Amino acid sequence: MADKTKILIHGTLANEFSIGLKTYLSTITVDGTYFILDKALNMGTHKIINVVDPVGDQDAMTLKYADDNYINLDEKGAASGVATLDANSKIPVAQLPNSVMEYKGAWDASTNLPVLADGGAATAAYKVIQDLTYTADTAGLAGNSITIAYTTGATAGSEVVTVVDNAISVQIETGVSTATQVKTAVDGKAEAAALVDVTISGTAGNAQTAPVSATNLTYGQDAANTGDVYRASVAGTQDLGSGNITFYVGDFAIYNSNDVWERSPMADGVQSVFGRTGVVEATAGDYTASEVTNVAAGNIVAVTVQAAINELDDEKMALVVTPTDGHVLTTDENGQAEDSGLVVTTDVDSGSTDSEIPTAKAAYDAIGTSMASALSSIKVTVAQAAATTSTAQVPAGSIIEKIVVLVTAAYDNVAELNVVVNSVTLVANASTDLTQTDKNIFELYATNAGATVVTVNLTNTPTEGTALVIVYYSTPLV
């Protein structure tokens, strides 16, 4: 029955049907309401008319019915035709107008990879393997499907290249075959040369090593279309053809209708902090002291940290001399800090006479629970004058805690030295003490009755010798 034509006769027994056929072309049999022809129906230049609209899959239809209800196959997905739907009932991107944005992927703005350029020309995929660069012969995304692999087993100079579809495999002598030899082998294989161009990007004589697993060429892309979009994964500044543009992480590069790449910021707010994007944490060097606010308080009026530091620096106690590491700083008669020349040799709180640094022990003992101030000092340099007087005074009520005599140059003529405060000789140095360069320390813990200068008397008129007399005292605060 498959090679026969079956014609359904619509109507009732009251209808009359007349079919004229050449009997040598078809044999007609009747099967219920059907005429059955044993050959395909050949109408020649004739046609069937008055065909009713079909109601079943095997029914005939008129051209008008087909035009009104069906789409020609050659109109699907074609120009001036209709769009198709994919498996998800969506219009494929290829059938959308160029004005619709299409996300192409991530883009490194620091290296411009994949390569973006105004004009939107297609770019060829490539891959650097050791000293050779393989570049697809044809620009576009298709080049990204090409793979390169190195295997072992060949002899240097007789490298073997095989190609299966887009996969190129080069058999080399690992550690011996040079970049030049591998290039020659690939160029000499017609199938491989039709896929890639090989250039020496490193050193021609360098030995190449295997194995290298199949590695895809990358960064090939088709010509840009209006609406193509890349998102910056790494920040950077690039001249894509219309001048430098700085992209931050998250920004979009959009190809516009003028064939120019432009930047669309991720947001209209803050793009970066100190050149850093994402979740930014403060690090050293973000701000200088002059950029940090200081709240004025006390005697400091500066409103920035740097200005406050400068203010403190201007008001600090000046040094008369540069102190020596390990020495004790004291104040002179002008209230300036200076190097006392003293070094701690024992526990300063013990009151030991071997300690070079006076303590406030006696002052504390003398005033009970009251507090004593920090130590102050008066210094008198003594040469060969019979009497030398300080310019500063020991305040009334102060506790003279120690007097130190520093003999810096030995005296002659059996000279003797005594220190007088308030007409009271507190220290008397025998001539034997003054003939040696050393420190002579005296613990006194004597209360000074009234403000007075320090006088140092020198006897026997020496012609040489120098000493420094330091009077340490503390003053009760309450």
Tags for this entry?
478 residues; mainly beta; 4 domains; 4-stranded mixed β-sheet; 9% helix; disordered N terminus
Q: Can you tell me about this structure?
A:
The chain has 478 residues and is mainly beta. The protein has four domains: 1-70, no CATH class; 122-216; 282-316, no CATH class; 327-474, Jelly Rolls (Sandwich). The chain has six helices and 26 strands. The strands form eight sheets. It has a four-stranded mixed beta sheet with strand order 4-12-15-16, with no helix packed on it. It starts with a strand and ends with a strand. The model is unreliable at 1-31 and 344-371 (pLDDT under 50).
SSE topology sketch:
Layout: E1 5-8, E2 28-31, E3 34-37, H1 63-69, E4 102-108, E5 126-129, E6 132-136, E7 147-152, E8 160-164, E9 167-172, H2 179-187, H3 190-193, E10 196-200, E11 212-216, E12 228-234, E13 236-239, E14 244-247, E15 252-255, E16 261-264, H4 305-315, E17 327-331, E18 337-343, H5 361-367, E19 376-382, E20 387-394, E21 399-409, E22 417-421, E23 424-429, H6 431-434, E24 439-447, E25 452-458, E26 466-474
Parallel strand pairs: 4-12, 7-9
Antiparallel strand pairs: 1-3, 2-3, 5-6, 6-10, 7-11, 8-9, 12-15, 13-14, 15-16, 17-18, 19-26, 20-25, 21-24, 21-26, 22-23, 22-25
The structural class is mainly beta
Biggest sheet statistics: 4 strands, mixed
Number of strands: 26
Mean pLDDT value: 79
Count of all domains: 4
Low-confidence stretches: 1-31, 344-371
Number of helix segments?
A: 6
CATH topology of the largest domain: Jelly Rolls
Helix content: under 10%
Distance between the amino and carboxyl termini = 132 Å
CATH hierarchy class name of the largest domain: Mainly Beta
Principal-axis shape: elongated
Strand content: 25-35%
Rg, alpha carbons: 53 Å
Strand order of the largest sheet: 4-12-15-16
Based on the structure given, which CATH architecture of the largest domain is correct?
Sandwich
